[in-house]
Known about the structure:
Layout: H1 18-32, E1 36-48, E2 51-57, E3 62-67, H2 71-77, E4 84-94, E5 99-109, H3 112-128, E6 146-151, H4 156-168, E7 173-178, H5 186-200, E8 205-210, H6 224-232, E9 237-241, H7 249-253, E10 256-257, H8 261-268, H9 272-307, H10 313-377, H11 379-384, E11 389-392, E12 409-413, E13 418-422
Parallel strand pairs: 3-5, 6-7, 6-8, 8-9, 9-10
Antiparallel strand pairs: 1-2, 1-4, 2-3, 4-5, 11-12, 12-13
Amino acid sequence: MDIAEIRVPDAPPPMLSVSDLNRCVRDILEHAWMPFWLSGEVGDCRSSGQHVYLTLKDTHCQIRATWWNAVRRVHDLGIRQGSQIEAFGNISVYEAGGQYQFNISQARLAGKGDKQREFEEIRNRLDREGLFSDARKRPIPMFPRTVGVVTSPTGAAIRDFIRTLMSRNPLVEVRVYPSQVQGENAAEQLVAGVEFFAKSYPVDVIVVTRGGGSLEDLWAFNDERLARTIAASPIPVISAVGHERDTSISDMVADLRASTPTQAAELICIERSTLVDRLDSLTNRLSNSLQLRHNALATRFERAIGALSGAPTGGISNLRSRLDRLEGDMRTACVRQIQQEHQHLDMLSFGLADAAKNAAGRFARHLERLTATLDALNPQRQLERGYALVRDEAGNIIRDGGAVSSGQRVEIRVAKGEISAVVTAGRG
């Protein structure tokens, strides 16, 4: 008999439900893998209640992940779409959906451990050298006339700083040194900015600032070269980096730390109402001091008159006349001093009003120029001149005639409306 003809009776195959199958797969996967670290980029990231559902991916693959009761943790770590993270957990199966997933028990931003250690090493080294000591820090001038700001010229930080500064004292002149505030070249440019104001273009105070961000975003402000440049600056430096909870090396070594760019502007300029109150207080103190001095001298003269009660009448009359003249002179001096203080206050008020008016005019003219530029660059104006905008079916703009093929459908945008067309030929 041919061996190929021998048949072994088949055992009846098992009958499983879908739930049974998914449960078996879950048991196999969960017992086959010990918990491990998984690195990847965060794709979708959303939350429901206190739980976080995200996708981890690399250049080729992706996997769904869950992190139970982790909404606050994700927020504190700054994890969001596009973040590179390292997650510790285990493989599991979502039975209802028949999908395997990664259950996260803890996570960290990729490389943050190394950054944190480097931050602590720099901080400890500079602290041992005394760069954080209050004894070496210089006072910020009470009435600075010129402020040098080292920051990004297009960021929200400079807008908030200038808006607050101008609302408090439009007489202050602001000079901006444009610098990157994150990235590979940021630290070098920040150092150059501080040195520029310290050596080449002296100002009354230097402000180094940017808005908030992750540890990686703010890393340039932890650069040791920047810290030493700030410490060596002959001009006082204010560091205003990030938000209230952010603290950088530049904050520690600067002469004054502001929690935000807005607070930096508030610390630099005394508000006009505060200045007026201070001048009123000084005027009252001067008036009271003069009055006390007058009373003391009057008492002395009264005692002298009493001691000379036996002196000739002419002597007493002369003393009384001298006392009256002295009292009159003191009253005149007191009134004159008060008048001068009020006049000085009025001059300051007029100057502030004129400066505010001039600043508003400059801003208005600058806004008009920007509006005209934007209007000239408006794509709609180009279309109204007879030009057209051509897109393929995916919505991509076509810039090269050789990039289209015969028979391809395109959408043509003109000044009024759109045209659907089919390409008959394309040439580059």
